[in-house]
Amino acid sequence: MDKNEKTRELMLGHIRKYPKLKIRDIFKFIYHSAFGCEHLVASAEGVEDYILREYRELSHTRTDTVEALDGEYSRIPLSSLSNGLSPKTLSVLFYNSAMEKAEGIDGLLRRLDVVKELVRDGLTPFSIDEFEKEAFEWGESGYCAVHHSEKFREEYNPSYRVISNKYVVFLPLFTELDKRISQGRAILAIEGGSASGKTTLSKMLEEIYGCTVFHMDDFFLQPHQRTPERLNEVGGNVDRERFLLEVLKPLKSGEAVLYRKFNCSTMQIEAPQRILPTGLTVIEGAYSTHPLLYGYYSLSVFLDVSEKTQRERILVRNTPRLAERFFNEWIPMERAYFEETGVKKRCDIVIEIE
Predict the structure, then answer these.
(1) Structure confidence by residue, pLDDT tens digits, 283-292
(2) What is d(CA 351, CA 354) in angstroms, rounded to the nearest whole number?
(3) pLDDT of 19-74, one tens digit each?
(4) Which of 75, 196, 274, 291 could form a disulfide with 305, with the two C-beta atoms 3.0–4.6 Å apart?
(5) What per-residue confidence (pLDDT) applies to 155?
(6) pLDDT tens across 247-279, in order?
(7) What is the pLDDT of residue 43?
(8) What pLDDT does residue 42 have?
């Protein structure tokens, strides 16, 4: 499906969902799709205060859903806060999304042309004359951000924030994390196969929550541990015993961690770093939810990457020789571990990565 056809389908769906919308509501959808967050935001703290004020005015029986826009953004209903997502987290998602580079005016004009065709085809509740008049006036204003029409507000009472789609798939995780954090310190495990996005997600969480991140890749086996017996164990190719002793047990007790990384270049363990526990600590990497370790986490998430996406990502990121090691050696070991230990079923949240 090309861009214009996708825009056409989304706009028709938007009109069906909101049959009493006005032309300016169409403009707002187009604007959000091309520019994302239309408001200038000075700080995430200011955004949080505004979100809280608006949320308090909501009817808490609302069950709004996420609404995909035509591009890289979605509208996230403030009613999501009733499910456990914190105002602080939503404000950070909104603020970070506002800081991203948007598609811009070319994307807006392309979408506007598509909508004009829909109007000409008689597929909207507007005449072509009234639409072109309002579109001209909007252009004269420089295609600035617009508010919803009074009719739209009366009928649908919109209450949402626009955030980047890169966050949307992880909203269930953010919600559960916020619930755990509200009860005290939380430790999250991010499990999944190679190229499933574990490191990317951990960096995202670091940006959102200011959390500490530990990587299972820093606990590969030392040379003297790489015996045939150990390597033939399911999940045996990481030093889970050292990870448990040096990281998880101190974290669980709220103590400082003396973090010693294994350096794959020198094949030696580096000098320890003293790291204090934070409100949220993230452990990312395959084998992080091994049965020996699983009981130490507050929450676990499994990133279930499709074989197609996994292969494409590995080929892009690695030399052909290294990619073959992934396909012939490391991925089969991961899959044997997933199957043998039932990791996917055991994790609290499973997120499909297409």
Answers:
(1) 999 999 999 9
(2) 10
(3) 999 999 999 999 999 999 866 666 666 788 889 999 988 876 677 899 999 999 99
(4) 196
(5) 95
(6) 999 999 999 999 999 999 899 999 999 999 899
(7) 66
(8) 64
Residue type, 87: P
Q: What is the length of the chain?
A: 354
Question: Cα torsion for 272, 275, 280, 283, to the nearest 10°?
Answer: 0
- Per DSSP (E only), the strands in the chain are 67-68, 73-77, 160-164, 186-192, 212-215, 257-259, 262-263, 268-269, 273-275, 280-284, 299-305, 349-353
Q: Are 74 and 37 in contact (CB under 8 A)?
A: no
pLDDT given for residue 39 in this prediction: 60
**Measured distance between the N- and C-terminal CA atoms of the chain, rounded to whole angstroms:** 17
The burial class, CB within 10 Å (0-12 / 13-18 / 19+), for 318 is middle
What residue ranges in 228-267 does DSSP mark as E strands? Answer: 257-259, 262-263
Sign of CA dihedral 28, 31, 35, 36: positive
278: its two tokens: 């934070």
What are the CA-CA distances from residue 204 to residues 96, 105, 269, 284, 350 (Å)?
Answer: 10, 28, 27, 12, 17
Contact 66, 150 (CB under 8 A): no
Between the CA of residue 62 and those of 17, 152, 171, what are the distances in Å? 16, 17, 18
Rounded CA-CA distance 101/218 in Å is 34
Q: Is the distance from CB of 237 to CB of 220 less than 8 angstroms?
A: yes
- Residue 354 contacts residue 306 (beta carbons within 8 Å): yes
What is the predicted pLDDT for the residue at 41? 67
Which of the residues in the chain have pLDDT under 70? 38-45, 60-61
Residue 154 is encoded by which pair of tokens?
A: 């009366």
